[in-house]
Every structure is written in structure tokens, then in C-alpha cells.
Amino acid sequence: MNAIPAGDTAVNPALRAATGHESADLAAFAAALRYEDIPAAVIDRTVDFFVDWAGSALSGGGQRAVGAIERFAAAMGPQDGRSEILTARRTTSPLFAAMVNAAASHISEQDDVHNGSVFHPAAVVFPAALATAQHVGASGRDFLAASVAGYEAGIRVGEFLGRSHYRVFHTTGTAGTVAAAVAAGRLLGLDAKAMLDAVGSAGTQAAGLWEFLRDAADSKQLHTAKAAADGLTAAFLAAEGFTGARRILEGAQGMAAGMSRDADPKKIVDRLGSRWTVLETSFKFHASCRHTHPAADALLGLVEAHDLSPEAIAHVVAHVHQGAIDVLGPVTDPKTVHQAKFSMPATLGLIAVHRRAGMAEFDAYLSDPAARAFLDRVEMALDPEVDAAYPRRWIGKVSLRTGDGTVLEGRVDEPKGDPGNTLTRAETDAKARRLAAYGGMLDAAGIDALMPRLWSIADRNAVGRLV
Amino acid sequence: MNAIPAGDTAVNPALRAATGHESADLAAFAAALRYEDIPAAVIDRTVDFFVDWAGSALSGGGQRAVGAIERFAAAMGPQDGRSEILTARRTTSPLFAAMVNAAASHISEQDDVHNGSVFHPAAVVFPAALATAQHVGASGRDFLAASVAGYEAGIRVGEFLGRSHYRVFHTTGTAGTVAAAVAAGRLLGLDAKAMLDAVGSAGTQAAGLWEFLRDAADSKQLHTAKAAADGLTAAFLAAEGFTGARRILEGAQGMAAGMSRDADPKKIVDRLGSRWTVLETSFKFHASCRHTHPAADALLGLVEAHDLSPEAIAHVVAHVHQGAIDVLGPVTDPKTVHQAKFSMPATLGLIAVHRRAGMAEFDAYLSDPAARAFLDRVEMALDPEVDAAYPRRWIGKVSLRTGDGTVLEGRVDEPKGDPGNTLTRAETDAKARRLAAYGGMLDAAGIDALMPRLWSIADRNAVGRLV
């Protein structure tokens, strides 16, 4: 663990070489960001992600782990307030609305992702921003500006913490706490100094470990729930004058010193105000861990081009980056639907059998012998080209051997949902409607009423209740 | 960052060599621990620490950082409930009672400490245990058994995470989350399996970085507040069936893999049921960071033995362990009372001038020129003997040079408050009364009424309200 007390030998020379004050620069940017300063294309894409997120959050309504967190919120929090728990159709204080909505956002594995940071911004930013906006009566434009600030901050913190961090830590939990603090802090009107306090209090709460993957435990939902709630806590405390460390990201006993070996402080402030990472963020198409998507798209291309039946496929090698092996490797025999979403053989099995790996296909996976047969037919192999391009680009490569010994090679350079292969607004609308229906909290008329409210968020004088 | 994915080269061979299931053994011990199985001396000492803790918690009442957290709790939590916020004299849900009481417990730097783990158990265990006990109507005996379980678990987790962890992470925040989960989980009646879920959900939330020390920021209070609240959250979620990682402590992507280089899994289960770490825990005598105490006692011995006036002392070298340099080194010119408590020159200056470094002396420190003059007269030096004995023993050594060039050497082998140099019950009672009076929430009659309720906690059929 890379303790770097003053004067000690740094494990990471970049941290020692840092002479600026990157945490403060990030906080100042977030505090000052106005709706008017954000390019229209960035706002439009943020609205797309907001609609996409609302679908994901509503889809989590009926799921066990989310229900446990909702019952906890009901026991610990107030029974009324101005902030809305989407899946429970009730209101409470912002803390618990953010917590439950964030838990619900990430469970279907359909929420967005930024490739370079391997960070899922929507699942932590929108819950904190929505709960705070509803609490303070913020406008739709302020809500969107705060959400952009959260994306821009969280993604840069994720990039800063780097690949070594992601090998053990769930970046959406750690960087996500800072992202949520920035979004909530922007809506509370924190100035640059108070925003830096919020970042400091967020960073010192940041947590989330991948160990749960081996056991198919519920921790992923806890990570997003706590990132949103803890970040919101940091912002509200800063508004009360509660102070935080000024260099929680890059300092000698800060996040990178404790939780990264390859952190580069320059990434915290990379082209703030000119590079918009919102535009680099990807929609998820398949309902599984993003690390499965490049290979899934590459396999889908082969299956469709050669019209392969599942029985014709004897063996598939997914050529992947190391991060995929770290996250997916521990899942050897998926026992739950959620664990299946972290299994390359499960995901490729569904693609081979159904040419689709959506919510319905995963829900039926445990009793789908044709797809499960691929547990023995799929393996992952580290690929130097794919690994070198990662995380900036997520290349998909598969080698497929048929029963008669033919070998076919499949490749995609941008998986479906990436900025160069994105969803149309019609596709986003349809995806969100499917997810909302899946959650079962709203009937068709309710979804028809909801969708225009989501798409027109920028025009609302006060965000108010959505569902 | 010591990522140890399956098959990778382990940075820490001890983690790879672990073949048992230490997290499960610890959880099983905590779930099964009964009051009747705990030696009377352990129970008695736990009562001592409970009384000592109540004084610390009440002392935090008037302090700014605690007030900010209490206002946050009032805004986010319910206005009634069965769990008591000691300093606010109101009740709420267990989550917020644990949060505020834990924030208040640690701010005066008078709460207990376990030397070997450098962990402050009272500040995180009692807030979680008391809030849960009041919520479920537990007896005093169950409250004490749960508290013992929390101490025994948290101390062992702190020892397990080791010195490399403590260099960057505030162990009371990280191990404290697990300790609080165990204490709350015991009161919720979790069985061994559910207790392991609670440990898993606690460990994946564990956080707290030392970076705030440089800025005298308020994070220390956030760390105890969140450890108690997050641990309690983990326990209540486990009671709802929410699952956690089964090897969150020792696993390949668990706490030690992410946050330690020298973790030894055997320490998690070291003599569970026969070694009682409660009996190894120290009271704090001076109102400052424990790392200042050995040198303070050594200097006090010299000052008293030679009846030295402050003016007679030209220079003092405190011969310390590396951990003292890591934690105290960043504070070069204390700007706040709380920061002064993390300054070796400030603490030794008060000892030289007042022969005492209590709450009152620190409160007056910033306008105490005689004590502040020692900022230039005190230095720390790494001492091989002291460092080798640490953290098992905290030896105090100082070299003092007088104005006429005489050099005096002072030494203590056990600072005041350590098990071999402990406080009597009368001293503990008097200390708790002083601290409660300092907080200003109770008048003398209120304190007189409170103290017998604290000392007789074991006899209460239901813990109920204390204040």
C-alpha cells in the first residue's frame, strides 16, 4: 500500500512530481460551471443519459437487493420529504432517495459507462443530483449543469486512479463518491472553497471492493447506493461549514496514495472546459458487464454473417484486456442472474443461442441448457492489442471454431453504444421504456406519461416529482 | 495497490498462503458470543470503557464539526425514534444516533485506544451498539456482549491490516466499520452466515484517509461517524437478507489486497475466545493524539523530577516510532485546537508549561505564548528501539537540553492509561464527569444522575435512554 508520507520514497513518482493543486482546480471548475457555458451537444447527450438512467433505475424496482435497501431506508429515514424514490413511488429526505435510486440504477447492468475511466457515471451522478434538485427546488437546467459537473469530475477521477485501482476497487464506488458530491454540491450552490471541502469529505469516504464478485454477493448495489449517498452527505456537510482535506485526490495520504499505483494527477484536470467526457460516454446495449460487450458484438457479427446455429459452434476464444480477466475471471459457474452478467461464457452463450443478451435472456439463463452449454465452450485469453488499446478503446475480438474445424475470426472496433456506434434517441426511448416496464412499477399508461417529462427535463422550472 | 487477482503474483505472500476462511471464523465467533462466556474482568473493563466513552461523547456536544453532523442528521433523518443522540438530547433512528454519537466521541481525543492495532474501539463500537440496543430493546448484558464482540473483531482487523495500512488509512475508520457491524449485528441476533454478510458489506464500505491532517480538516469526525453508521447499515442490511463478500478481509480483491502490504490473515482469528483484547486496551490520559503520549509522560517525569521551569528547557527531542512521524509530522504550525492535539511540539509545550495537557490546556493553546514557544524547541527523531517495540509497546523517550547545556534523558515504558499503568474506577469516573461537564449539555445534577446509570449498565433489563 503506497504510503507516501512526506519525505518518504514515493511508490508513484507522478504523485511526488505534482506541483499544482489539482483537487482545487477540479472543485473550482465544478463550482463555476453554468448551463450557458455547456455546449448544446453536451446538454443533449446528458438528457439522453438521464432518460437512459431513469429506465435503469425503474428496472431495479422489483429486485431483491434493491428491496432490502429500500426497507432499510424506510426504517432509518423519514416517511416524507421532497425527494423521490422512483421505484417505491414515495418521497423522503435526499439522502435516502439518492441511496435507493442509486442501488436500483446499477442492478440491471444497463446503465451507461465511460470507457477510459471504466466508470458508470449515471448510476451515481443522477441519483444524487435528482434528490438534491428536488429538495432545493432547482430548475431542470441547473439539474443538468450539476449532472454534467458530476460526469466531468467523476470520469477524470476514475482516469486519474487508473488501471491499478480498478484491479481491486470498483471505481464507480470510489470515484463515484466524488462525482456525486460535485453534482449535489453544484445544486447546493457551493463556492469553490466549499466545493473543495465537499470533494475532500467525499474522497475520504470513497470505498468499494471487487471481492464480492466471487460470491455473487449484493455489494455492487451497495457501492452505487453508498457512493451517491456519501457524496451527497459530503456536499450537504460542506454547506454546513464542515471542512475536508484540500488534496484528497493527489495528496501524500490521499486516495491515490492509498489506492493506486499508476495515478497521474494531470488527468484530474485534463482539458477541463474544453474536453467534454459526457460525449465520450457509452450506452450499454447488452444487459451484462461492459467487459463482455466487445466480444459479444464480435461474436454476434460472426453468428449473423455466417448464420451459425449454436450447435455449430464448438469453441470460442474471447481475446480480451486484463481488466476483463480481473473482473470476469472469478465467475466460473454463475449461480444467479446477476452473476451470469459477469460471465463471459454466459453472455456469449446467450448471443450464440438467441443472438441477443438482454434482460429477458439473462432472466431465463439459469434454466437455459442451450446457453449454459457454452460454459464449457468459451474461454478468455489476454490479447496484447486489445489490452494496449484499453481503456481508451474497447476492441472486441473472438476466434470461433466450428464443429467441422473451421476457424472464424470476428472483430469490432467500437461496441454498440460507444460514441461512434451510438443509440439513436428512438433507440434510447425504446430501451428506457422496456426497462421501466421490466421493473413493473408503472403500467404502459404510466410510462407513456413519464417519458415526455424525462425528455423535457431542460424546460422544467423546478425538477419536481417525475413518477 | 496490491491487486491480487487470481493467478497474479501476490505482493503479499501471506494473503496467498491463507488457506482458512478467517472472515467466516471471525463472524462465527461474534455471532455466538454470549455474555456468560465472557470473563468477569473483561465485562468490568468494558463497563469502564463504556463510562469513559460516554464522557467523550458528551464532551463533543458543543463542537463545530459535531454540530454540522447533527444538523445533517436533523435534515436527513426522522425526528423521533428509540435511539438517542446523547449530545442533542433527542431521539431518532439508529443510523443517525450512531452517526452523531460517533462523531462526538472522537473529537476531544480522550477516547480509548488499542496499542497493537492503533485503533480506537470505543468511538465506533459503542455508538453502533447503543443505537441498536435502544432500537431493539436489548438488555444491558446483551449490549455489553455485543460491545465486547465489536472490540475483539475490530482490534483484530486493525492488527491484520497492519502498519502499512495505518500509514495512509485511519484504521478507526476502516477496521471500525467492521467492528460496528459486528456489534450491531450481534444485537440484531444475526447468525454466523448473516454475520459474515454483515462483515462483507462493512468491509466493502471501509474508508478513511489521513490526508486531512495537513489541513486540520474535520474528517476525523466524519470517519468515526461513518464507521459507526456504515457498520450499522451493514448489519441491518444483513438482517434483511442482503449478502456480502465471504472473504472481504483476506480475499484476493478484499480489504488487505487493496489497502495493505503487510496483512497477516492469522491475526484475524488470533486466539479468539481466549485472548481478550479488551484487556489490552488503553485509556487516554492527555487530550491529544495517542502518538504524543509516551513522550509527554517521559517529559512530565523529567519536569517533575527536576522541577524544571519552562524557561529552563532549551530543546527537547522526542524519540519516536515511524507511525508518530507519519501522523504528527504533517502538522508543523497548528492553527486550530484540534490540530494542536496532533502536534508533538504543542503537546510537549503544554506539559512543559502546565505539567498537564488536558482539554482546558489545549483550548487555551492558541493564545498561550509560553507553550507556543516550544514549537521551535521540540523535534521528533525516529528511534530504532521505540520503533521496533511499536505497536505492541509504546515506549516514551525524550532527551532534554537545559539552558546551561545539561542533557537529561527521560523514559516511560508504559504511558499513563496503558493496562499496566491504568486508571482506577475513581479516575475514570472523574474523567468522564469532567468531559461531560466540558460538553455543557448537562449540569452538575444531570451528571450526578447519569453516572450511576452508566456504571450499572449490566443490570438494566433494557438499555433505554441514558441522558
UniProtKB/TrEMBL annotation, chains A, B:
MmgE/PrpD N-terminal domain: residues covered: 25-266
Domain MmgE/PrpD C-terminal as annotated: residue spans: 286-438
InterPro entries: MmgE/PrpD_sf, MmgE/PrpD_sf_1, MmgE/PrpD_sf_2, MmgE_PrpD, MmgE_PrpD_C, MmgE_PrpD_N
Similarity comment text for this entry: Belongs to the PrpD family.
Protein name: 2-methylcitrate dehydratase PrpD
Organism: Labrys monachus
